[in-house]
Design goal:
- By secondary structure, the protein is α/β, with parallel strands linked by helices.
- It folds into three domains: about 5-200, HUPs (Rossmann fold), CATH 3.40.50; about 210-265, SH3 type barrels (Roll), CATH 2.30.30; about 270-350, Beta Barrel (Elongation Factor Tu (Ef-tu), domain 3), CATH 2.40.30.
- It is built from seven helices and 19 strands.
- Strands 14-17-16-15-18-19 form a six-stranded antiparallel beta barrel. It has a five-stranded parallel β-sheet with strand order 4-2-1-5-8, with helices on both faces. The chain has a four-stranded mixed β-sheet with strand order 11-10-13-12, with no helix packed on it.
- A hairpin with a 7-residue loop joins strand 15 and strand 16 (about 305-310).
- Helix 1 runs parallel beside helix 2, helix 1 packs across helix 7 and helix 3 runs antiparallel to helix 4 (about 100-120).
- The longest helix is centred in the first third of the chain and has 20 residues, at about 100-120.
- It is globular and about 70 Å long.
- Residues about 40-45 have low confidence and may be disordered.
Amino acid sequence: MRKALVAVSGGVDSAVAALLLQKAGYRVCAVYMRTWPGGAEGTPSGGCYGPDEDDLSAAQAVASHLGVPLLVIDLRREFSSQVLDYFVSEYTKGRTPNPCVVCNRFLKFELLPAAVRATGETFDLFATGHYARIVRENGRVLLAMAADRAKDQSYFLAFLRQEHLAGTVLPVGELRKAQVREIARKAGLPVHERKESQDFISGSRESFFPRAQPGPICDTGGKRLGTHRGIVFYTVGQRTGLGISSATPLYVVSIESATNTLIVGPAEACYRKTAVVAPFQTSSGEPLSCARRFRVKIRSSHTPAQATVTPLANDAVRIEFDRPQWAVTPGQAAVAYEKTTVAGAGFLSAQEG
């Protein structure tokens, strides 16, 4: 009998993933990844990174209900060095990070399975409760959008390489969220009504930046309009929290970390037609060899937009959208799709015109 290692979070999606694999005849071993360093136990976190006693208890209840073992793997140190340090560094540089993308790539799909193997545990497949699909085409393993487009998480998994995808299954990728809830309810899973985490961190991010420095807010012509409380608290396209009055709404157009300055302007100033991504990783692992037409998604809530992606030096690419896009934000992931499959991904490094 083949064995599946299932990363469980205490939520309904990963619980159903484990259940479906068990029903398919796999021996299932659940694993919980511990990232929270401690403190405020028993307080609901409301985020992926926060007090996790309730999440761990829920994962234990699921494992007990299914009659499968649960491993708890401590990756707190690795999470701090690879995800939190990146999170802080990017905001300090005036960029908007995507910690979930980094966590999936380096921790959940790489360090976590490796840490389990290091305990002596063996398994044939690794599974999570992500809403995405894995398809095989012409000898390659590709990541594709989930059947439930409203819940699709392929954007957050787009940096996974062939070696990650080859040994991975995503059991809920063909289902809609309502179906997952119903499967959990019928099976009596103790988490069938549990709410899902929506944010990366619990509460505000102020605790990460105790020494944030105030600085000028200027319009696109260089005129000073006010003072911000630290560039780390802002992102391109943001309107709220600027603390300045204007006859017309103003939005963050860009962030200049070198001078600690926010540049603001009217809504139309937040549209960009081109951007640079560096480096850009294709699904095959090979550099992009020529200009290609893709649909490109520039944040998790963005509808993929038609664009031409052209290779530059050092594995960078230039994205030219058919139509200007709102809030092209340095630091965010840009994911290129060919129909419904991920063709490549990288982080936005610069805005252009």
